[in-house]
Amino acid sequence: MIAAAPQDSATPTARDVPISPFLSAKLRALMWLAVVAVVFVHAYNLGSRVLAGENAGDVPGAAGAVGFVEYLVSQTLTRWPAALFFAISGFLFFRNLTPGIAQYLEKWRRRGRTLVLPYLLWSVWGLLVYLLLHVLPGSSRYVSHGAIDAMDAATVVDRLLLHPVAYPLWFLQALVVCLVLAPLIAWLVRVVSWAALVPFAVPWLMDVDVGLGDYVQFKALLFFTLGAAIATHLRQGKAVPATGADGPATSAALGRWLLPLFVVACVVFTATLRGDESWAVGLVHKLLMCLAVAALWFGYDAYLSGLARRRWVTATAAFTFFVFAAHEPPLMIFKRLLLHAGGGPAASDAVVLAAYFVAPVATIALCLCAGWALRRWARPVYAVLTGGR
User: Fold this and answer.
1) What torsion do the CA atoms of 21, 23, 28, 29 make, to the nearest 10 degrees?
2) With contact defined as beta carbons under 8 Å apart, do 227 and 91 qualify?
3) What share of the chain is helix, strand, coil (3-state, %, to 5)?
4) Count H helices, E strands: the chain?
């Protein structure tokens, strides 16, 4: 668990939050599990986008057994990774940061290498694959028509910087904004403590859109601030729930009922509300994701800590970022190939469901092989693509 920094006087002195071997293994295992979950989120294949090869939206509340299974997995059980990633990122950014101009500049300089450069490179990769699929005769029938004709200089810039073809990169876009706003977040936490979450929680829950695309997301700011608040309070020797001497026991006790509660809540939500797209149901869905973050964090201590000792986890977790960055557009390609091979728009429920599970597994396997090969035979390239991870 995270250990609270010792307090030597009435006025706490900030000091680094130590990362114990247990916490290091926990972060590594949860982040790898989160990336696997992300791939399954994006494996959702109920919609004309993958069945007919057009850029139409998916069907979130599809009826029938296939709709139930895919919604349960992609829209509830695995919808927590982004929130957890932002919280962990906020914690790691602030755990050893003494606010000051020089310190922020150094942090931003490092993040430029670990976030901005990989984002640009993976965005270029995604666009090149997208264009190649439209040019090759054998693959052009699987993708939307007329995309090449509409590709001018402005569109290229937009697809590289604002709306990348590899759409999971939105996470890096939003994280960069969180880092830029870190001084403001630090000030809020210092002045109003846990109430610093409110300015970001309210607009997120109210579906406020400031019109800046994926760069400014209140969900990202909320959970990044949560991580920042935890790190700041620990550095100052202040109390944080489930930390300190009794932290591991408290965390495991919470996890023993939070994780099963989350799973049951996902099943109930999917069975009763998946076809309702009202604001109220959307609010319940967001609260479910908040429950998910707590359930996974504390549930790890109760049920999942053995994962960190599994050889296959320790061997593959090193490629977490690579799999995250590389899984699109390969996942999209696998989905479309499998569905077209199984009948296209006329594919049976069995084919749709089989493709739903096979595509993410095949994508993860492909990304692991590619990452391993690059790290073994082109380590400098791998290092640049992963920001040195």
Assistant:
1) 110
2) yes
3) 75, 0, 25
4) 18, 0
